[in-house]
Amino acid sequence: MLQQTKVATVKDYFNRWMLRFPTALRLAEAPVEEVLEAWAGLGYYRRARNIHATAVQIAESGMPQSRDEWMTMPGVGRYTASAVSSMTTGERVTVVDGNVSRIISRIFGLYCDVTTGSGQKEIWQVADSLLPERSFPGDFNEAMMEFGALQCVPKSPNCTDCILKNECVAYSEGLVATLPIRNSRKKQKRKMIVETAYCFTNARNEVLLAKRLEKGLYAGLWEFPMASTQEELESELLVPISNVSKPLGIVEKKLSHRVLKITLVRASLEARKKSPHGTRYQALAWYSKRKIEELAISSTTVSILRLLEKK
Ligand code: SF4
Questions:
Q1: Which of 37, 215, 244, 290 can pair with 267 through a Cys bridge, CB separation 3.0 to 4.6 Å?
Q2: How far is the CA of 182 from the centre of ligand 1 (A)?
Q3: Is the dihedral of CA 280, 282, 288, 290 positive or negative?
Q4: 302 CB less than 6 Å from ligand 1?
Q5: Is residue 168 lining ligand 1, measured as CB closer than 6 Å?
Q6: What pLDDT does residue 138 have?
């Protein structure tokens, strides 16, 4: 839940989530649709699907007992597996995230590129060697991450007040601004996708939403029907579109590998009797604006709703 989100934003979601799904078994029993609705507004819906799939696996085969077992769960990598295992059962494994990579490369004066596999291997090895014999591994890992988040911050850390300044190579050699090395992370040029989203309303002032297929971008989420051309959307919805308005505004969203540029228009749709064609959407339904906020929708749809509110 905390990915690219502040704790203050997540707190209410987390509390509601825990009331609704207090155990892994309760979560496993819930249909994925209910899980996505509980997640609605947080984005990164793949995480909600993975948590649900993990709960199902736990219900079938029991709770993982080690980092390696956690790593067999859907969407769980070495970082998450190490964090969960060290903080719950106290397994003697270290956690390396961006904070820990930064601390280690600075304190030990490491010139390895922390964005590469070999650089990460070196950082993990040093981190493993630091795990104290007698302390609880989870506490050590949390302390390292907090130290990076609060003290050894990326830009202009307050080194003169740092308890580790006498051990820190970067500080003594004036390399604080240089380390960690992050050479190889080339800025990928994101592909621009230009589409038009259509706001269709009916006599009850409800708007038509379309549900994405279960694979690909925004899998299983509801959104304003959109496509790169009107013809493309007509062939998806299987009905003609008319009365297309001038653009109401543009929503731009940066995703990991692409940028979505979506122009919003109002339009009319002839009575619809058939299901969508199924190349992008699996279902269509009319919703009141109040009800839409309770659905599993993407952050792009949230932005479009905000844009509509201003019109
Ligand atoms: S002295 Fe500065 S660079 Fe070194 S660990 Fe402390 S805060 Fe980080």
A1: 244
A2: 18
A3: negative
A4: no
A5: yes
A6: 96
Last residue of a domain, one of 114, 141, 172: 172
In a domain, 159, yes or no: yes
- Are 164 and 196 part of one and the same domain? no
- Are residues 208 and 225 in contact, defined by beta-carbon separation less than 8 angstroms? yes
* 197 and 297 housed in the same domain: yes
162 and 213 part of one domain: no
Check residue 282 and give its pLDDT: 92
Structural domains counted in the chain: 3
Instruction: Compute, in angstroms, the gap from residue 94 CA to the centroid of ligand 1.
Output: 20
Where residue 144 sits, what CATH number does that domain have? 1.10.1670.10
Q: What is the pLDDT of residue 184?
A: 63
Beta bridge partners of 251: 262
296 Cβ inside 6 Å of ligand 1: no
- Residue 164 CB less than 6 A away from ligand 1: yes
| Nearest-atom index, ligand 1, CA of 157 | 7
Identify whether 273 is part of a domain: yes
CA-proximal residue: ligand 1, atom 4 (nearest): 168
State which residues of the chain have pLDDT below 50: none
The neighbouring-strand residues paired with 226 are 197
CATH code, domain with 47: 1.10.340.30
Binding site membership of 176 for ligand 1 (Cβ less than 6 Å): yes
Closest atom of ligand 1 relative to the 158 alpha carbon: 7
Whether 69 maps to a domain, the answer reads no
The count of C-alpha atoms lying within 13 angstroms of the C-alpha of 76, restricted to the half-sphere facing its C-beta, is: 22
d(CA 101, CA 96): 6
Which structural domain, as residue segments, surrounds residue 117? Answer: 98-172
Q: Is residue 186 one of the residues assigned to a domain?
A: no
Categorise residue 186: left if φ over 0, alpha if ψ from -120 to 50, beta otherwise: beta
What pLDDT shows up at residue 215? Answer: 85
